[in-house]
Amino acid sequence: MTTAYRSNTYIPELVKASKKLAEEKEFINSCSDEVGRLLLVLVGQVRDGKILEIGTGYGVGSSWILSAIAPTVEFISVDNSKEKIVDVTNTLLHNQVEFMYGDWKEVIAKGPFQFIFADAAAAKTLEREILFQALNTCGMLLMDDFTPEEYFPEEWKGKPDEVREYWLNHEELIATEIYLTPKTSAILATKRN
Questions:
Q1: Angle 72-9-188 (CA atoms, 0-180°, nearest 5)?
Q2: pLDDT averaged over the chain?
Q3: Which residues are registered as beta bridge partners of 146?
Q4: pLDDT value of residue 2
Q5: pLDDT tens, 49-61?
Q6: Which of 113, 32, 9, 115 is CA-nearest to residue 68?
């Protein structure tokens, strides 16, 4: 007999609303439930400071964050699509979040951030040093959408992975890669004192 555990099935009401919006917009790049449940646990540990989400999409990741956010924490979510920000702002009504349209680098002046969910490829690859600097000392960074090495396509095999090299070997970070499903992983990193 298989038992269903809340940890594998729970979806907050806010997340259901955002998932519905994403589905209506035929947006398929929303935060997965596995990442969302991890966000619940990680964000639940943030007691003060600011949280940044890079890549709002239609607010699925934002909804997971808002479902666990402490009342003393500020949350900013930024996306480079004005249409998405308008739709999310009209769907997710919460007094602790500021949805912003534009380049995420324009938002970092509001930091440093205690927790960053980087769900935009450029932030964790091309602009990684700026992302690192935006993280507060002892702050945590979550980046998803990684493919475990054993599932690399042939054209990736045997080539350097500059993204993993930077984040997992950075001297000022404590970092690890965790599997979310058998074929997807995420990198978690904490900035050292």
A1: 55
A2: 91
A3: 185
A4: 63
A5: 999 999 999 999 9
A6: 115
Provide the strand spans (E) within 15-104: 49-54, 73-79, 97-101
Q: Assign residue 61 a region: left if phi > 0, alpha if psi is -120 to 50, beta otherwise? A: alpha
Strand order in the sheet with 97-101: 97-101, 73-79, 49-54, 113-118, 135-146, 184-191, 173-181
Q: Which two tokens stand for residue 95?
A: 């007094």
* CA–CA distances in Å: residue 186 to residues 74, 120, 152: 24, 13, 15
Please report where in the chains the tokens 């969302």 appear, as a residue: 36
Residue with tokens 């979040």: 97
191: closest CA among 119, 120, 112? 112
The answer to whether residues 7 and 37 touch, using CB atoms and an 8 Å cutoff, is yes
Confidence label for 1 from pLDDT (cuts 50, 70 and 90): low
Taking CA atoms, 75 is separated from 28, 43, 97, 113, in Å, by 24, 11, 5, 9
Confidence of residue 23 (pLDDT cuts 50, 70, 90): very high
Q: Which helix (H) or strand (E) holds 36?
A: helix 33-43
pLDDT tens for 103-127 read 999 999 999 999 999 988 778 888 9
